[in-house]
Design brief:
By secondary structure, the protein is mainly alpha-helical. Helices cover about 75% and strands about 0% of the residues. The protein contains nine helices and no strands. The longest helix is centred in the middle third of the chain and has 32 residues.
């Protein structure tokens, strides 16, 4: 990346983050007009500090999304839809479903609160990804749509892909469990420990959602497998860590650090499995 590109990133990423923040402000004003009540904030937090952390989180999120946008060989409306589905589906829907079983905080304290939180991420995700698509278009030579996937042996590949995320999730979750289990077992910071009967179907459902969302990214990727792996893995990490680690400033550092390592491993390994299972026709091995 040359100096001109770096300078462009220095102003385009903050503007994209501001777009996310504007979306949050609009969402916070519109949802109550639809009869949805904003849930209570986590204990010991305040709105201004949370807003600052969300601004930082959206700035970090815009970076891996920009890499994806530059390498998706599809027209702008398609790129916007793909990146929006990725951002809202993983960072909003997927993480609210996860938090519903692990937290008792206001944002997920009830079905109505969880619904508000999910819908509250629609406009911010639309604004952020719209800005990213506008600021980070693909090169002229990659703006094509005649793409394809190698679907030979799709049956076992689909089964492997659906099993991949739960397997990765449980392996790395068990590795960090000794360092964080005390917070859950003692109910600190409004945390709770779900049962295996809740976890297994939850992660299988999230796996199906994630595969559906990641499929178009692989389908329209124009570039090397390595870059797809790193870009998708980084995006997956930031999206899953957005609420649980990056913006949850009230959590102790041990909880954020070990969960951050866990989510980083989840994202990188899971993305690598998908890239191996479903290589696009235009992928190179570099």
């Amino acid at each position: 990346m040359h100096a001109k590109s770096i300078l462009q990133y220095l102003w385009k990423l903050p503007v994209s983050a501001i777009a996310f923040f504007i979306g949050m402000a609009l969402s916070g004003a519109l949802l109550p007009m639809l009869g949805l009540q904003s849930p209570e904030m986590p204990a010991g937090t305040d709105a201004n500090t949370i807003a600052l952390w969300f601004m930082l989180g959206s700035l970090i999120l815009a970076l891996p999304l920009s890499f994806l946008s530059r390498n998706l060989a599809v027209k702008p409306p398609g790129r916007w839809l793909i990146l929006f589905a990725l951002t809202w589906g993983i960072g909003g829907v997927g993480m609210v479903l996860e938090s519903y079983f692990f937290m008792e905080t206001g944002a997920v304290s009830s079905v109505n609160s969880a619904l508000f939180t999910i819908l509250n991420f629609v406009l911010p995700s639309l604004c952020l990804t719209g800005a990213v698509v506008w600021f980070f278009p693909p090169a002229e030579s990659t703006n094509q749509s005649e793409m394809g996937l190698d679907l030979s042996g799709w049956g076992w590949k689909l089964a492997a892909a659906l099993s991949a995320y739960p397997a990765v999730y449980f392996i790395f979750g068990l590795l960090v469990q000794p360092f964080v289990i005390e917070f859950y077992s003692q109910g600190q910071y409004e945390l709770t420990a779900p049962t295996w009967g809740q976890l297994i179907p939850l992660q299988l459902g999230r796996s199906a959602l994630f595969l559906l969302i990641c499929w178009p990214v692989i389908r329209f990727w124009h570039g090397s497998r390595r870059n797809l792996w790193l870009s998708l893995g980084a995006s997956f990490f930031v999206l899953t860590a957005f609420m649980a680690v990056i913006t949850a400033y009230w959590f102790p550092w041990q909880l954020r650090f070990f969960h951050g390592l866990e989510l980083l491993a989840d994202g990188i390994i899971y993305a690598g499995i998908l890239v191996i299972l479903f290589p696009g026709q235009r992928l190179t091995t570099q």
